[in-house]
Design goal:
By secondary structure, this protein is mainly alpha-helical. The protein has helices at residues 14-19, 59-62, 74-82, 90-101, 115-126, 130-140, 145-157, 161-170, 178-187, 191-204, 209-219, 238-246, 271-284, 289-296, 306-323, 326-342, 346-358, 367-375, 380-386, 392-402, 413-423, 429-436, 440-455, 459-471, 475-487.
Length: 492
């Protein structure tokens, strides 16, 4: 069920062979004749370790119950997890990430096979959560071909390939494929064996011409200096990317899946590449905003263009904040906010500066924007309590932050879609069915999709999705989502 077509062929075996092909269509249940033979009953061991239960966040921290997946079926849950949610609002992306990382009992039919864990790891890779995926694999163990392949690629993209190669050498049962074996032999300093292995495989026809040309150049770049560099394959795997980097022909990650951005946030990449990679990962919610803060303020930009204008505006605002001069801050804020809007980095900006901005006595022309930025921060409730609204819109925003909008008039169409969820939340028939069937996790995934449809032009989706979040007592998520719907420019 893997949706990833760019995993390296680092190990051979039934699991690896299956995952390196194009994404498989979800398996459909077989058609039965309705005979008298007893049906197969799904079972899960009552005792022992289950990979599907592995998580990084305990229920008391996540706010999600241990029976999150309840009576759901593994394949249905996995398909729901893999569906694209990259365009969701930041609060909903954070909820989704929490669900992927939460400790939870496995579905009733999991059978201890780890299929749901693999779906969660694959989704983390698809949204750029490499560190989180690596942590899940560390807990679950990488002793299966499918999990090792993912651990191997994560190690390459996070600069830990030597550790992955050592692991491969200590586990011959993982059966490394030829490109991975040649790469790891060379990384370990055994260049002669790596060259002999490649030559033998080429003679036997066990490796295609493109891979042979790339590996040969990797082993002895001087020998092929006058030759044309072979074009990158499609799709590019992490191992391909690393080999091209090693021969001095780095493939830019901007057009590659977001997981590859991790390979360029380290000091080995240029400053511009680091910034662009960090922006992608910060926007996805998989790295902390402080990483971007450090990169934005690392040095003075020496060029012009969209990225550098964003850096200049950010640096000017950061310097103004350090000066604590309200007039200077008010002058620098609009440009910085506009640049953050262009990159859809408003919420990370609010996390960094929102509370400090809200505490300042800014001029009237800057105060409304500072209030809205503060409401996008984790301290939105405290900021709403300490602020005196100046108009109808601010009163409604403050009411949403406090969960109290009785008697307040919604200022626009989005506000009118949000209001019923806070005044009289009602579950949709589908949500009632899922919650009644002990399938809370799938109901939450449905709410995320409903709200996204609302952003794209169906206001009823906003009402349904927010109502569900409030009904299951995810009040903080509901309020943050409502505020983002009102403040961010994400409307279809």
């Amino acid at each position: 069920m893997s949706a990833i077509d760019w995993l390296s062929q680092s190990v051979s075996g039934p699991g690896a062979a299956r995952s390196t092909s194009a994404p498989a269509k979800p398996a459909e249940p077989p058609i039965t004749s309705g005979g008298a033979l007893p049906v197969e009953v799904a079972s899960t061991p009552l005792d022992g370790f289950s990979r599907d239960a592995v998580g990084l966040i305990t229920p008391n921290v996540s706010g999600l119950p241990r029976n999150l997946w309840g009576n759901g079926l593994t394949d249905e849950i996995s398909r729901a997890i893999i569906r694209d949610r990259m365009e969701s609002l930041p609060a909903l992306r954070q909820l989704f990430l929490t669900m992927l990382l939460a400790e939870a009992d496995p579905p009733a039919d999991s059978g201890g096979k780890g299929r749901l864990l693999q779906a969660r790891i694959d989704k983390l890779l698809l949204i750029g959560g490499l560190e989180q995926a690596a942590a899940l694999i560390d807990i679950a163990g990488d002793d299966t071909p499918d999990l090792f392949r993912r651990a191997f690629d994560i190690a390459i993209l996070t600069g830990r390939e030597d550790k992955a190669c050592e692991r491969m050498q200590k586990a011959p049962g993982l059966a490394p494929t030829l490109p991975a074996r040649v790469f790891c032999l060379a990384r370990g300093g055994d260049w002669d064996t790596a060259a002999l292995t490649l030559t033998s495989a080429e003679t036997l026809g066990d490796v295609d011409k493109g891979q042979t040309a790339l590996l040969s150049r990797f082993l002895d770049p001087d020998l092929f200096e006058a030759d044309t560099v072979p074009p990158p394959p499609n799709p590019v795997t992490p191992l391909d990317w690393k080999l091209y980097e090693a021969i001095g022909e780095t493939i830019p990650t901007g057009r590659l899946p977001i997981a590859f951005a991790y390979a360029e946030i380290g000091p080995q990449a240029g400053w511009k590449a680091q910034i662009e990679a960090a922006e992608r990962l910060t926007r996805a919610g998989t790295i902390a905003p402080n990483v971007l803060l450090g990169l934005y303020t690392e040095r003075d930009p020496a060029a012009s263009g969209s990225v550098w204008e964003r850096v200049r505006a950010f640096q000017a605002f950061d310097a103004a904040m350090q000066s604590q001069d309200p007039a200077r801050i008010a002058a620098a804020l609009p440009a910085a906010w506009t640049r953050m809007q262009e990159a859809e980095l408003e919420v990370p900006f609010a996390v960094l500066y929102g509370p400090a901005l809200a505490a300042l006595d800014l001029p009237p022309d800057a105060a409304p924007l500072a209030f809205r930025i503060g409401l996008l921060s984790p301290q939105f409730e405290q900021i709403a309590r300490s602020h005196t609204p100046t108009d109808e819109t601010e009163r409604f925003l403050a009411g949403l932050a406090l969960g109290q909008i009785e008697g307040l008039r919604p200022p626009d169409a989005m506000g009118r879609a949000i209001a019923p969820a806070f005044l009289d939340p009602v579950l949709s028939d589908e949500a009632q069915m899922l919650i009644g069937g002990m399938r809370l996790g799938e109901a939450l995934l449905l709410s995320i999709e409903d709200i996204q449809r609302g952003v794209e032009g169906n206001p009823n989706g906003v009402t349904r999705g927010l109502s569900l979040l409030r009904k299951v007592r995810l009040e903080n998520v509901a309020r943050r989502t409502a505020l983002e719907l009102m403040i961010l420019e994400r409307r279809g």
